[in-house]
Amino acid sequence: MNILLRHFCILFLIIIFFVYGKNVFSAETQPSAENSSSGFTVKNDLSPELVREAIEGGITFLKVTQFKNGSWEEPDTQHVGGFTALCTLALLNAGVTVEDPCMQRALKYLRRLNPTKTEAASTYVTSLQTMVFCMAEPEVDENLIRRNVQWLTETQISKGAKEGAWSYPNGNGDPSNSQFALLALYEAERIGYAVPDIIWERATKYWGKFQNVDGSWAYLNLPPTADISAPGTGSMTCAGIVSLLIASEKSQPADARIASGKLIPCLRTQTDDSKRISHGMRWMRSHFSVTRNPGSDRWIYYYLYGMERLGRMTSQRYMGQHDWFREGTHYLLMKRHMMTQKNNVVVFWKGDVAPHETYEIISTAFALLFLSKGRLPLLLSKVEYTEDASDYDWNWHRHDTINLTAYVERQWKRNLTTQNLKLAAASVEDLLHSPVLYLGGVNSPLPKDAKMQREYAQKLRDYLDRGGFIIAEAVAPGGTFDAGFRRLLALMFPEEEISPYLMPPEHPIWTAEKKIPPEFLRPVYCLDHGCRTALVYIPMKGNQQASLSCTWELANELKRQNRHLHSSQILAEIEAGLNLGVNILAYATHRELKTKDTNFALQQELTPENIMVNRGKLAVANLRHGGGCDVAPTALRNLLIKSSEVLNIRSGILEKTINITSPEIFDYPVVFMQGRHAFRLTPAEKKQLQTYLLRGGTIFANAICASKEFDASFREMISEIMPENKMSFISPEDPLLSSRFGGYDLSTVSVRMPRKDFSRPSPSQKSAPRLEGIYFQDHYAVIYSSLDISCALEKHAGECMGYTAEDAAKIGINILLYTLQQ
Question: How far apart are CA 610 and CA 660, in angstroms?
């Protein structure tokens, strides 16, 4: 098909898009869903914008319902301060700063309260108040936190049938009070407050004792007898699992130890508590719902608040087959109520306990906690690669990535999360939700089946091709992990020129944020893919040095209440392992992490293998040459995927690398040319490219990482095939850089500078686009950027000079729209 006919066909698609294709939710529109027996059938109409609007509207609702004294309390409130603490906690998690006047009023009110000294001293209020103080300004409220921690430790029931529980005033212990007390002590302990071991030990016994035979927990505020039991509920089972998880982890040793001046890895054992947690998780998976509190007809929002905590603290994205955050978010968006007040959109959720506005405040606070905490940015995922569920070779250290994430949170001063995922069940799109994958073990990560080996390798290669990063590690000596992982690499990268190499001293990972002391340096192997390091592998260094996973598992030994137990050498080794982890994550992510709801906008990617060439596809060819045309292998594909979303082209994309001399070149109105090295075309290639341009085609090119070698070769090539036409800078006022063709106003863009300090986001400056072109036969025949676009499209451009990922995509979309309408 000639170029003019193809122009007409794609222009027709664009016209159809602008007439019929737009489908944007207004603020009042609610997404649709279909009920199922266990959860939701969620349609693909969620968006990050809808979630942010709901959170912002919920914040507005709580702000406008706050009383002048800073509280949310009604005069007859039973637990004075409880509603205020809950609302304050929700606002803090939703992003309201401590400096906000609303927050200052709330904190001032809470600081005046002493819920430990009233006649009806309240576990709920004390616990929620403690969580607020730990999150808001812990240095300011140090004495109040210490007071509350002491009271909570003193009021735990220390003997009798309910030993280990907390209760209402004059009560005999119940799981709801007990859950909140443990959550408060957990938050206090995280920031350095010492909690006696006996508290955790008692709590572990209590939660284990009152688990039902089927794995659930019930709300039973009665003296236990042999013949009294109650069916479990979702809210209490979430509470039971998380409470038992917290208490047992604090009362039992880690999965690694310190002995005789050494770190000893892989000492995980299967305890009764871990069996109880697994039993409870099975109950939750089989009874999962987001439309009701399983086993109860009340407290759905309290249950969802517990579900979020369960998913996050067990590092689970799925409950069975259900994406709990996606389905829960969909339900909350369906149930939200909206109104306009003083030009502000207010969002709230009605209570399911009583038709009283107080319960709207409670329900809205719980909904905000689910949405805001559930969408925390995902830092990394631990890969479960074993076929047998009872084989935990992938997870010898259950807390390694959890502890590393907590350490990074303190370093980066932002809340983050981590998760585990099953490689066999995960799609490439599932993997891409996480910027970093951690793959560790003692024995080979490869399954026995050869077909599954190839599937694992292809998934991980596709993940790296699309901008992902992998940390792989043998966590203990003596196993087969090294041989198995090297076999996996060979399957992932059959190209002979791609292989791991020993990371040199000048590699930025060594000093990205923390300098690693020389005595704790270890062999780290890198694998470069595209224009960056995409994988690091840490083998075992004999028996002399513990794995990174082992140091991460022991991270809690650095806390102030534990430091006196160990030598400075041991503490330094643990800290060095954590800091190397921070450096790797800083290099891999550039600290530029997305909230989990951004994944709602991801659409299934189309690959050349499942796309047939036909007229309706959005198609661009990548030109093959000797200057590194495949150094950024997914840049063009990512641009086409983004363009198809913007243009609402549902018939697919076609991205194909072709020889310059191929007759196929004339089927494409625009071709893509990228590279990082010097190159030279043959006379036949030059002639073909010249003919292509004379027939009305366009070359869209860029120098990967602003390569001077490619830049010089490209300019020489253009001067030879278009000797009578010179490239000149394209004016910021040119229609190409405007919204005239349905694209974006790009008169000003962000130009990214090479990054040297990995503790900060890539520096950038605003300027006009630095594009050059040749205007020939009433259109641009050549559009060229000497600054990087390709690495930005692959979203790993921290060391390149070029455009930001967002502006690189916009530039590409404008160029495609321009060429398709000429």
Answer: 24
CA triple 19-637-641, angle to 5 deg: 30
Is residue 323 helix, strand or coil?
A: strand
Residues 237, 238, 240, 243, Cα dihedral to 10° = 180
pLDDT digits (tens, 9 = 90+) for 312-359: 999 998 998 899 999 999 999 999 998 887 778 899 998 776 545 568
CB-neighbour burial class of residue 692 (10 A; exposed 0-12, middle 13-18, buried 19+): buried
Tokens encoding 19: 């007439």
- In Å, what is the CA distance from 487 to each residue of 421, 448, 494? 22, 12, 10
Q: Is 546 helix (H, G, I), strand (E, B) or coil?
A: coil
Closest by CA to 596, choosing from 399, 325, 409, 363, is 325
Task: For residue 337, list its beta bridge partners.
Answer: 348
Phi-psi region of 628 (alpha: psi -120 to 50; beta: other; left: phi over 0): left
Residue 455 CB contacts under 8 Å (≥ 6 apart), including other chains: 424
Amino acid 681: pLDDT: 86
Sign of CA dihedral 592, 596, 597, 599: positive
DSSP labels, 594-614: --GGGGGG------GGG----
Digit-coded pLDDT (tens) for 503-529 = 999 899 998 999 999 999 999 999 987
The beta-carbon contacts of 758-766 under 8 Å, at least 24 apart in sequence, are 758/508, 758/512, 758/513, 758/583, 758/586, 758/587, 758/590, 758/591, 758/798, 759/512, 759/513, 759/586, 759/591, 760/591, 761/590, 761/591, 761/592, 762/590, 762/592, 762/797, 762/798, 762/804, 764/804
How many residues comprise the chain? 822
Q: Measuring CA to CA, how many Å separate 553 from each of 324, 474, 550, 583? A: 27, 14, 5, 17
Q: Which residue has the higher pLDDT, 40 or 622?
A: 622
Contacts of 204 (CB under 8 A, 6+ apart): 164, 244, 247, 248, 251, 252, 273
Name residues whose C-beta falls within 8 Å of residue 573's C-beta, 6 or more positions apart in sequence.
263, 520, 546, 551
Reference 575, options 523, 506, 520; nearest CA is 520
Residue 272: exposure state from Cβ atoms within 10 A (0-12, 13-18, ≥19): exposed
Residues 6+ apart with CB under 8 A from 684: 661
Q: Which of 237, 251, 122 is nearest to 175 (CA)?
A: 237
- Per-residue DSSP letter, 312: H
Instruction: Quote the tokens at residue 148.
Output: 């509350």
Residue 419 and residue 687: Cα distance in Å, rounded?
Answer: 54
| Structural element, H or E, at residue 432 | helix 428-432
Confidence of residue 761 (pLDDT cuts 50, 70, 90): low
β-sheet with 417-422: strand ranges across: 417-422, 378-384, 436-441, 469-474, 532-538, 525-529, 501-502
Token pair for residue 782?
């050549």
Residue whose C-alpha is closest to residue 216's, from 305, 283, 294, 274: 283
**DSSP assignments along 738-790, one per residue:** SSTTSS---SSEEEEPPP--TTSPPPEEEE---EEEEEETTEEEEEEESSB-H
The pLDDT, as a whole number, for residue 762 is 60
3-class SS of residue 618: strand
- 266: its two tokens: 């892989």
List alpha helices for 601-729, DSSP H: 635-647, 683-694, 708-721
Q: Would you give the DSSP letter of residue 723?
A: T
Tell me the C-alpha distance between 468 and 460, whole Å: 9
Please state whether beta strands 670-675 and 779-785 pair in parallel, antiparallel, or not at all (unpaired): unpaired
Distance CA(312)–CA(303), nearest Å, equals 14
618-624 and 653-659 as β-strands: parallel, antiparallel, unpaired?
Answer: parallel
pLDDT in tens, 154-185: 999 999 889 999 998 878 889 999 999 999 99
Calpha distance 489→451 (Å, rounded): 15
